[in-house]
Request: fold
Amino acid sequence: KAPQLCPLSPDLIRNEVECLKADFNHRIKEVLFNSLFSAYYVYYDMRWSCEHLIMVWINAFVMLTTQLLPSKYCDLLHKSAAHLGIWQKLEHGSYSNAPQHIWSENTIWPQGVLVQHSRCLYRAMGPYNVAVASDVSHACFYFLFHCPLRLLNLLILIEGSVVFYQPYSLLRLEKWNHTFSMALILFCNYYVLFKLLRDRIVLGRAYSYPLSTPHRDK
Reply:
């Protein structure tokens, strides 16, 4: 197969991925710091403090993540991952009769092509492939963001688990201030879960519709 053309150059795609990786890591650090900072202010009852700490931290984590990683930003990460592509490492000798190429940073490799890089054999798995075959960070970036709903599904799973656990915890509380605090967090979690599910339904339909048409990238 001959290399396919892409509207973006390989260097531009890789540079975009590096910038997005740095920006994404910065946003995640901000999410972790601010959610832990919010969870720091808890009561001093050890058991209650630990449980309340976890509830506040998870709630703050999900809310900050949805704020700092909005749908448009996640869509940008998804498109960049689609342009980046992914490689599968193969055993030497398993495709000895198939055409093999030397990996080049200036080439956009089509799906299924075999290349040699750093004395290893790789097969292109994405529609377009400009990722460095041996770069683990490129593989992680593609794994996290090539599915546009993966991050949203993860947040729904986390928030849903908390919402299912909190009513059970609420029934075991005896002090009114603990009950009031947990009920307030539960109310906030219901709202956050509602927004996440709404976004999941809307984005799920938006991403599933273009799959049936030949003009998905337009």
